[in-house]
Amino acid sequence: MRLVCISDTHSRHHDMPAIPDGDVLIHAGDCTGNGSLPALDDFTRWFGARPHQHKILIAGNHDFSFERYPDWSREMCEKQGITYLQGESVSIDALNFYGFPWQPIFRHMAFNAREGELRGRLKRVPDDTHVLVSHGPALNVLDYIPAERVHVGCRALAQRIDQLPHLKVHVCGHIHEGYGVSVRERDGMTFANASVCTERYRPTNPPIIIDL
């Protein structure tokens, strides 16, 4: 199965690099810039028109509509054939995907959560998950901000990833500077920060392909 991964398009999806063919197109959050329903409508129409058989979306910290208008936002996705995951799983050809939009508190943004809440929510990630899609990265993996010389990923997420016995792939975004792929030597686990926008919000990073 070929996964095509993108994230953090911030309403710049019409200007991003071409999206390669694949079986599952994954967007790891921040599909909009201002989180409005019109912005989400434009994105879901575009995302739903991609030729990939399966399309998975989670929300990010800019995607306020999923918190403010959850029913309307989910309906927009469903009308376009998009599987929206918010603490939910979907199985595709015997691979189990789980969507986790929450991240450590960052300003007054959407899907902020304190450490205790994050740990509680992460306990609900099923042990049989093969592909975990979260908006934020795990601590010390594709989460480094050079200008501040700091790793800003989620510690609780990193710990839960290590507890999932069948996990093969973790897809995230959020930290634009962390764009790229890392493969863990001890078990071949693949981490992908698929942020399309750079730290200057230019939509120039190409989609990341992962073959399972």
TrEMBL record:
It holds the Pfam family Metallophos. It comes from the Bacteria. Residues 1-177 form the Calcineurin-like phosphoesterase domain. InterPro entries: Calcineurin-like_PHP, Metallo-depent_PP-like, UPF0046_metallophosphoest. Gene3D superfamilies: 3.60.21.10. This is Metallophosphatase domain-containing protein. The lineage of its organism: Bacteria, Pseudomonadati, Pseudomonadota, Gammaproteobacteria, Pseudomonadales.
